[in-house]
Amino acid sequence: MIFPNYRTTNLVVALGCAALMAIAVFYFQDYLGLVPCYLCITQRVFVIAAGVICAVAALHNPLRKGQQAYAGLLVICAATGGFFSIKQILLQNLPEDQVPACGPPVDYLFDAFSASDAIGMLLRGDGNCAEVQWQLLGLSMPAWVLIAFILLAGTGLMQFFRKA
């Protein structure tokens, strides 16, 4: 199978990440009125980071070692985002009596706590993260985002090990 060249692949991935964010913000958040929980926001950060890495890689179009560096960053970013997707999937599958309590809104966290404390709370998640607000084909949103992270990691690995 012939894959597009390095630069084109990175451009397509960057545009794909931008499309994921546009869908998340304009469709799910604005149109459907779904409020993202802490772990959803964290996953969005990693989708954005993956898109930025690929956009910079496409613009830079480095030689082999640079290509591998960008690909490695993409894999790390996708794996970390995937970790938070899995964490949310696990929260969503807890028995109701084991779901953690819901926390305050994100803007309150940054007003009331230091940035490091607020970020720590965001990364832990809370009871809001356990609520399944949307499903497609029996999979919740974090499951679909996990699939996206798996595809991103696979693309990064392909880019890392490609010959030319």
Describe the structure.
It is a single chain. The model has no long low-confidence stretch (mean pLDDT 84). 71% of the residues lie in helices and 2% in strands. It contains 6 helices and 2 strands. Helix 1 (6-31) runs antiparallel to helix 2 (38-60) and helix 2 packs across helix 5 (115-124). The radius of gyration is 17 Å and the shape is elongated. By secondary structure, it is mainly α. It has one domain: DsbB-like (Bromodomain-like, Up-down Bundle).
Quaternary: single chain
**Topology pattern, helix = H, strand = E:** HHHHHEEH
Choose one word for the global shape: elongated
Q: CATH first level: which class?
A: Mainly Alpha
Q: How much helix is in the residues?
A: over 70%
Number of strands: 2
The number of helical segments is 6
Gap between N and C termini: 14 Å
Supply the number of structural domains.
Answer: 1
Largest sheet: 2 strands, antiparallel
